[in-house]
Amino acid sequence: MVLRTIFGIPISGNPALIMVRVLSGSRYSLVVAVWALVGCVLMLHLYSLIHPRERSEGDIEFHLSQLQLTHELQASQDEGFQIPPPRGRRSPRAIKRRPRRSTTLIEEFLDETSQVRHMFFPDQRTAIDPMKEVGDDNMYFSPGKIWLDTDGNPIQAHGGGILYVEKLGMYYWYGENKNGPTYHAHKKGAARVDIIGVSCYSSKDLWTWKNEGIVLAGEETNVTHDLYQLNVLERPKVIYNDKTGKYVMWMHIDDANYTKASVGIAVSDYPTGPFDYLYSKQPHGYESRDMTIFKDDDGVAYLIYSSEDNSELHIGPLTEDYLDVTHAVRRILVGQHREAPALFKYRRTYYMITSGCTGWAPNEAHAHASESIMGPWESMGNPCIGGNKVSRDTTFFSQSTFVLPLPKIPGFYIFMADRWNPAQLNDSRYVWLPLSVGGAADMPLDYNFGFPLWSRVSIFWHRRWKLPNGWNG
Ligand code: GAL
């Protein structure tokens, strides 16, 4: 008795044998079966693209906040960067001899005498003063503008990162205090400021920052000390160790020529310090320049650093007390020449923003993703959206330093970057922008049959913006 048909072939009997009989029945049915299988795989793939892999209760919240973000994005103004007309009059003969090349926006950015300097480094009159702002301007982040602390002084926390201490409901922002004169130690050396120390600021709303002072100070007299003022201390980051109850700071330690290429470690019982400096080393025996640390949900923390002449990054777990690295290490983004890493996690996938290697000059950011923190990491191209092309290609004239999650809005982060001012490093500015993870990627990866695998990471340009209501509770 014929009970059913599969691919048009009448089938009866034990269901477990049906497929075998179909496949062995004829060559025609085998071809159909293979095509059907391919169809199923494609359908599944399409389904997984439309419906993100893991769904949780946060989804509704996420979509709501996305809507709100999109709305605010539309309302935000674009930066109207215009290249100024050439300066001064030139004789027709001079013009004939050598026509004046028009400058690029990036050249204008790097030129301290540029007529449009105020666009990149707006002056004191436009400073954001949270103690004075009232009405409409309240709580607005204004990338590039001078940002004052609660004492009315410009915030000095460059190359920084933020630690949220839940039991205190407080955010702590650590960064380089560069409030000294900029000079060149050597003719060809990078512009520098002597080590002053690591500043700490505290805030409950991420907008009003109280200066908690210098929590790790530079060393003025002992020339053999890592923190001796003529050396380099950059990119300090702090995490809390739940097992030891200590706040642990990692930072880039170097000499003025950047040949020491090491990490330094300091520790404190309190988020506001003082931090005791422990030692420096080359992790895993390798050079380490731009770096960051990342604490995963399971409490394991990792060091990520640019190595091998900044041609690749290395990543490896810290010891349980966070005071050293372990032996485990992986080379990632090999040959890609990336630095300024800022790592974050969304739904079990790890993401990272990096910059290219052009010293204090801005360049294009890249986003990267990985299923496992130890790699392999894939590059997903430039995450910057909005503004104009040159600002997208220069990370809005800034360089990544940290990505701060806002846990109440899954998929939403604050991208923190530095707009370096190499002529006057103490006047470098902060570029904080909304970063979101969501939607299909727009840069397909080779091995994935041309289908994008990762969610897109987007950093949206805003001349000014504020956090969505309810971000903090
Ligand atoms: C950058 C780096 C900064 C600083 C600078 C010095 O590439 O990201 O942290 O080291 O070079 O030129």
From TrEMBL:
Family assignment? Belongs to the glycosyl hydrolase 43 family.
Q: Alphabetically list the UniProt keywords.
A: Glycosidase, Hydrolase, Membrane, Transmembrane, Transmembrane helix
Report the protein name in the record.
Answer: Uncharacterized protein
Which Gene Ontology terms cover its molecular function?
hydrolase activity, hydrolyzing O-glycosyl compounds
Source superkingdom: Eukaryota
Q: Per the UniProt record, which residue ranges are transmembrane?
A: 30-50
The record's section on InterPro entries has: Glyco_hydro_43, Glyco_hydro_beta-prop_sf
Compositionally biased residues, Basic residues: 87-99
Q: Where is this region: Disordered?
A: 78-99
Q: Which SUPFAM superfamilies match?
A: Arabinanase/levansucrase/invertase
The GO biological-process annotations, alphabetized, read as:
carbohydrate metabolic process
Q: Which Pfam families match?
A: Glyco_hydro_43
